[in-house]
Write a structure and sequence with these properties.
Blueprint lengths: L2 H12 L4 E5 L4 H8 L4 E3 L14 E3 L3 H6 L2 E6 L2 E2 L4 E5 L5 H6 L3 E7 L3 E2 L2 H13 L5 E4 L4 E2 L6 E2 L6 E7 L3
Parallel strand pairs: 1-12, 2-3, 2-4, 4-7, 5-8, 7-12
Antiparallel strand pairs: 5-6, 6-9, 10-11
Protein name: LUD domain-containing protein
Pfam families: LUD_dom
Organism: Natronococcus jeotgali DSM 18795
Amino acid sequence: MMPAAVETFERSLENLPVTFERVKSGAFQSAVESCIDPPAVGVPLPFDEVSLEESPVTLDPTSEDILEARTGVTPGGPSIAEYGTIVVTSAFDGSGYTSLFPKTHVVVVAASEIVETIDDALKILVEEIDDGLTSAYLTTGPSATADMGAPVYGAHGPESLHVIILGDC
């Protein structure tokens, strides 16, 4: 990860209808809790230094939990600096549903997984596909449509997106 990629990513996010913050691992718990509108669901995070275990997030949610949730918390990455785009994988852990059904999606990305271009991200995804990844989507802000005039958020997914950038850069 290059600090420049993180800065470019943040500048890209500033131009989108999202909120974001960069936090060190010690501040993660309060950052994630400040974004949650209960009830919240999530999937385990793949980062050694942080966890959702102590947060008010239901891990390993049932279908009913997901349908009732107002907030979904998932990991994301790689993230594409030039667009402010985040790859969210959809695995058997429920991360796809957890990120798409609740009104608010909180996505946690590692600063070390922010890359400059979509080509850089695709190189990483090819490796993950070779390792068994079968589904992922790219998100650049909340779900939106403008086919009838002004943008409407939440038409096909979350109405709001909050990005937590985890890292010490």
